[in-house]
Amino acid sequence: MNLDKMTLKDLTKEDVVSFLDWLQQVRKCGDATRNVRLAALHSFCRFLLYQKPELLWELQRVLAISMKKTEKSSISHLTIEGIKLLLRQPDTKTPKGLRDLAILCLMYDSAARVSEIINLTPSMIRLEQPHTIKLVGKGNKARIVPLMESDVIILRQYMIKNRLLEDNANQKPLFYNARKEKLTRSGLYHIFRTYACEARKKAGDLIPDKKLCCHSLRHSKAIHLLQAGVNLVYIRDILGHQSVKTTEIYARTDSKQKREVLEKAYADVITHETPIWAHNSNLLDWLKEF
Asked: Which residues are known catalytic residues?
């Protein structure tokens, strides 16, 4: 069918199902992609319910198309030793290495998203006490996150070498490429993958997952805060989540904390004492005759 000639009458359950099947059979899309497309169609149909009530019956049939169940992937994260190994990879004797170390440290300690890092400007960094960083996340919502002293030392060194502490540099990109343009999302992923591969060669057990990405640093920080006993409400504020329910996913992921809770509540119900008759050789010989 020519898309230019489509009308609302062509929005039928059969056509939608045919489109979803085409996505998976021809385009080779997964269940998650199918569900995203179907969710968009459902949203459009709910809008039409009020705008075109005469199409109520067919719209309800489209809304009745169910989502496919997808397997929830586990959150990839690094241990504290893995983070330390990763941060030892950049060569801080070079301008590029110093920049990359500053990026990796900020991404971990502030639990920032990729978009939040690439949109940073020098004016969003406070190097004086109290050390803070301003992150602008989803929905253009800003939050203030404390900076660690070690991050401030690296950032100050990086900003001085690149003359980013001058007044005329306030609105320039904090992190930029060789063309003095702010880093792109793919550029940041390339930086992370480069050092992750180097670290994996030195200790594959600390960097085991080849699917690790920049967002893994954010996950790692959240889980490490949880393991340190930080309240979920504070973790929510640091991550910039709107609801603490979103943050609870880390509590469900942290197997270490689950094991510690079980060990504290563990009661040994198995008797390990050897029964007296087990040492009676005459009795054992007599039993063996049966």
From this structure: 113, 138, 215, 218, 241, 250
